[in-house]
Q: What sequence folds into this?
C-alpha cells in the first residue's frame, strides 16, 4: 500500500504560486517544495513573509525539514530555497538538467564567469533517482517541456507536477520559454498520467479562472477525464493547441528578474561597492512584448 504523506499547500496570491510542506506523519520529517521569496518589482523590495509562514507551520507541527526542493528554475517568482537552507540547514535540490538552463541564461545575462554546473544546490536529481521523506519512499520523474530542467517529485501517493499540469479547468503549462517544447511537454504529461489513477497531483500555480477560490489538488483520474488541454486529445492536437495559445501570452512580468536569482539557487545578487544589490535587466532579450 502506497504511503500517504500529509500535504499542506500555501498559496501566494501575488504570484499565484503554491508552495508545499510534505510530511511523514510517522516520523514528523518533511520536505518543502517550491518556496517563494517575496519580491515587489515596483519598489525593488524583497521579503521573507512566504518562507517564514512555511517555517512557522513546520514549528507548529513539530516537523524537521529534511529537504528543500525546487521543481525547476521559476520564471514568475524568486525561490526561497537558499534562505530556507540558511534557516534550517536542510539540503537543497533541483533537477540535474538545471545546468542546461544555467548555460542558456548565463549568455542572456552576459555572465561569462558564471559556474553553470549546478553547484548552487546540494543535490541534482536525475530521472529515476530515489530518496525518502521520513520513511516515505520518493522518486523523481524528468518532466521537460515547460523548461529544460523541470522534474516531478513523487512522494508516496502524491506527485508534485510543478507547471506541467494545472487544475483540470486550467489545462497545462506554457511551453514557449527559452528551451521549452510543446512536444516534450506532451510526453511529460503522458508519463505523469501513467501513475496510478488515485495518485494525488499537486500543481505549482492556480490562476483562479472565473474568480473561483484557489485550488491545487487533483488526481491522475481527474486529469485524464477533465483536463481542458489533455482529455480526448492526441499529441498533434495538443501541440497545435499549446503553440497557438502560447502565441497569445506575454512573458511573465518577473521572468528576467527571477531567472538571475533562481539559476543561482535562490541567492540574491552580491552587494556592489555601495552595499546595494542590483537586479539587471537585459533589453530586447526575449520576444513576447505586450504593447496593449
A:
Amino acid at each position: 500500500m502506497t504511503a500517504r504523506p500529509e500535504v499542506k499547500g500555501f498559496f501566494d496570491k501575488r504570484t499565484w504560486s503554491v508552495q508545499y510542506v510534505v510530511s511523514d506523519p510517522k516520523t514528523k520529517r518533511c520536505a518543502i517544495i517550491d518556496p517563494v521569496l517575496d519580491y515587489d518589482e515596483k519598489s525593488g523590495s524583497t521579503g521573507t513573509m512566504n518562507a517564514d509562514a512555511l517555517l512557522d507551520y513546520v514549528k507548529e507541527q513539530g516537523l524537521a525539514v529534511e529537504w528543500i526542493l525546487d521543481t525547476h528554475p521559476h520564471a514568475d517568482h524568486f525561490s526561497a530555497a537558499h534562505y530556507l537552507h540558511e534557516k534550517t540547514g536542510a539540503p537543497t535540490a533541483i533537477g540535474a538538467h538545471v545546468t542546461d538552463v544555467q548555460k542558456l541564461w548565463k549568455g542572456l545575462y552576459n555572465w561569462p564567469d558564471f559556474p553553470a554546473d549546478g553547484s548552487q544546490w546540494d543535490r541534482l536529481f536525475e530521472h529515476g533517482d530515489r530518496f525518502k521523506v521520513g520513511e516515505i519512499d520518493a522518486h523523481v520523474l524528468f518532466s521537460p517541456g515547460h523548461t529544460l530542467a523541470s522534474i516531478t517529485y513523487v512522494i508516496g501517493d502524491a506527485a508534485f507536477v510543478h507547471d506541467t499540469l494545472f487544475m483540470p479547468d486550467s489545462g497545462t503549462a506554457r511551453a514557449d520559454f527559452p528551451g521549452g517544447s510543446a512536444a516534450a511537454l506532451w510526453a511529460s504529461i503522458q508519463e505523469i498520467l501513467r501513475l496510478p489513477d488515485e495518485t494525488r497531483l499537486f500543481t505549482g500555480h492556480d490562476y483562479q479562472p472565473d474568480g473561483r477560490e484557489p485550488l491545487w489538488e487533483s488526481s491522475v483520474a481527474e486529469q485524464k477525464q477533465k483536463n481542458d488541454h489533455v482529455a480526448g486529445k492526441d499529441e498533434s492536437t495538443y501541440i497545435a493547441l499549446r503553440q497557438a495559445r502560447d502565441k497569445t501570452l506575454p512573458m511573465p512580468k518577473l521572468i528576467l528578474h527571477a531567472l538571475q536569482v533562481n539559476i543561482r539557487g535562490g541567492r540574491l545578487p552580491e552587494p556592489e561597492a555601495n552595499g546595494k544589490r542590483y537586479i539587471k535587466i537585459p533589453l530586447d532579450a526575449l520576444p513576447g512584448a505586450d504593447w496593449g
Notes: The two ends are 53 Å apart (CA to CA).
